[in-house]
Amino acid sequence: MSDTRDPDMRQLMEAADPDFTVVMSCVFGVNEHVTRTYIQLLDQPGSTVEELADALDRDRSNVNRALTTLLDLGLATRERRLLDSGGYVYQYMAVPLPEAKEMLKEGLDAWAEQVHSVIEEFEENR
């Protein structure tokens, strides 16, 4: 999977100077759209799906999927806001960047540990 929308660890390792979106996409195993949605939430906390869809120039279903992924990863939260006209809307917030960075570091460390285990367990006399 060397596609820039869904990078893998090889792409990350081969990049001389990867940007944050590539690192985040690789470590969390998400596509670039999910990463862009997270960054947009950092810039516009409390956004609704409709606001994010407009800002990202994506349809609402794509934004909903990206938000579900971010929620599942613990990179976003949502709150229900009651509307004056009745009903409600969800507003989404990105977890603070320092917390996301820590999660990235932990994810990368866990991956490195797994690779080290594979190397150590590999039999020399195969």
TrEMBL record:
Superkingdom per UniProt: Archaea
SUPFAM superfamilies reported in the protein's UniProt record: Winged helix' DNA-binding domain (SSF46785)
One protein family per Pfam: TrmB
Residue intervals of the Transcription regulator TrmB N-terminal domain: 27-96
The protein, known as: Transcriptional regulator, contains HTH domain
Source species of the chain: Natranaeroarchaeum sulfidigenes
Lineage start: Archaea, Methanobacteriati, Methanobacteriota, Stenosarchaea group, Halobacteria
